[in-house]
Design brief:
Elements lengths: L17 H10 L6 H17 L6 H12 L6 H7 L4 H8 L10
């Protein structure tokens, strides 16, 4: 497992693999499904394009809605996939830096 900080985020995003994502998700009790991978793929593309993680849950939901539609771009759907703080949980699993405004 690559080195992580005290919140479980990878120290080096280049070390991310699908196996790493599966391990991090399992630590949170999440078994990754096709729906999870779709959001993880979206987040990794978002990061590659903007060089930041979505800075808050609100902007995360909005970005998902714009990219994948209303059914997936709503807080209930994202909370079911990534419990707690969806942006923070999803970014940690996707190997991305911690969103700046997430508690």
């Amino acid at each position: 497992m690559p080195e992580r900080n005290n919140e479980g985020f990878l120290e080096d995003a280049q070390c991310w693999t699908e196996e790493v994502a599966t391990t991090i998700a399992a630590e949170d009790g999440i078994a990754l499904s096709e729906n999870h991978w779709e959001i993880i793929g979206f987040l990794r593309s978002f990061y590659k394009e903007h060089e930041i993680s979505p800075p808050s849950n609100r902007l995360f939901v909005k970005a998902v809605k714009e990219a994948l539609g209303e059914d997936k771009g709503n807080s209930i759907y994202l909370m079911q996939l990534f419990p707690g703080t969806p942006a923070k949980t999803a970014c940690r699993i996707a190997g991305l830096p911690r969103p700046t405004n997430c508690l």
